[in-house]
Amino acid sequence: MKATNERGNPMQPTIYIDILFLLNFFINSIILYASAKVAKHDIGLLFLTLGSLVSALYSVAMFFVPFMAITQTLLGRLIFSVLLVMLTFRVVQWKKLLKLTVIFYMTSFVFGGTVFGILYLTRASTALGMVISNGEVYLNVPVGILMLGIGTAYAGVIVYTKIVRRKFENERMIVDVKININGGEVITKALIDTGSELIEPISKRPVIVVEYDVLQELLPIDAASVCNDDFNCEAFVEIVENNLHKFKFCLIPFSVLGNNRGMMLGIVPDKIEFLERAQPEISPVIGICKDKLSPDNEFFALGNAGLAM
After folding, report:
1. What pLDDT is attached to residue 1?
2. How many CB atoms lie within 10 A of CB 21?
3. Is 248 left (phi over 0), alpha (psi -120 to 50) or beta?
């Protein structure tokens, strides 16, 4: 199935409706999926397909049907983009909607810029035909170059996003923590681990695991015997009895990958303060760890995901 523009100029390329639709459907699917990856937003296959279908139909209709004047304006395009994002990502909250719309536009610009960059570098742009209809510009881009551009742009977006996100999250989630126990005080760096859900089972308070070496000067001498790999219940009872009025010790059950389970010595601090950050609603309990938490000494404590503010 094919159609030419309304003037029927033989020098202009022929536009095939089915090819135009399929290409737009495919490209829009990739752009929407890449946008979801950048935003770390779950997107179902059904709504991804639905969004790609609507945007492809819109592109075809814009070529052949003289829409109302609003569709030719910046406002009209913005309205359609927002509605597309709402449909595909199923969001109505305006902050999330704004964020996803901006990411969608940025991803689209990256894809379009990459394709035009490859056209420029390969000098294929000199052989392109161009059709303008209802204010839309359509280029006869070779399929090979189009696929190369899309693949390059997608790989670039995903790799760049992972690098930036890792750097941003590390900078944002490694924080300075001031710990006060029995009148003593220490400041250390803690990583707020978004995958950690460790809590103290009785109070249900979040746990921040701190290396023993950091807290050594604040703890009684006999605490070291309870922080070994092999947990000693008798030693725990003894340390609780000996320090009943000075320290508030507790037990924290934990599990790690590989289904290894154990008990960790915990202590309720007098105060924990996250420096230069909003304070969590619930003050955490400290779990004392004998091992190093970071091989590069980037941090010396590991916090529950609930402490991220």
Report:
1. 42
2. 17
3. beta
Cα–Cα distances (Å) from 204 to 115, 200, 229, in that order, read: 53, 5, 24
Beta bridge partners of 271: 180
DSSP annotation of 270 reads S
The candidate with the shortest Cα–Cα distance to 288, out of 255, 266, 268, 263, is: 266
pTM of the model: 0.49
Q: Are 194 and 260 in contact (CB under 8 A)?
A: no
- Percent residues over pLDDT 90 in the chain: 12
Three-state DSSP at 47 gives helix
pLDDT of residue 170: 57
**17-39 helix and 74-89 helix, angle to the nearest 10 degrees:** 70
Q: How many residues does the chain have?
A: 309
Q: Are strands 207-211 and 285-289 parallel, antiparallel or unpaired?
A: parallel
Q: Is the pLDDT of residue 96 over 60?
A: yes
> If we measure between CA atoms, which residue out of 32, 152, 56 comes closest to residue 104?
32
Closest to 249 (Cα-Cα) out of 274, 219, 221: 219
| Sheet hosting strand 207-211, strand order edge to edge | 249-256, 260-267, 285-289, 207-211, 301-303, 184-192, 174-181, 271-274
Is the separation of the CB atoms in 191 and 174 below 8 Å? Answer: yes
Tokens of 230: 């092999």
Coil vs helix vs strand at 182: coil
Count other C-beta atoms under 10 Å from residue 289's C-beta. 21
More reliable by pLDDT, 139 or 271 = 271
Backbone torsions φ then ψ of 152, nearest 5 degrees: -65, -45
The predicted-structure confidence for 178-227, as pLDDT tens digits, reads as follows 999 988 999 999 888 766 778 888 888 889 999 999 998 898 887 877 77
What residues have CB less than 8 Å from 109, skipping those under 6 apart? none
- How do beta strands 271-274 and 136-139 pair? unpaired
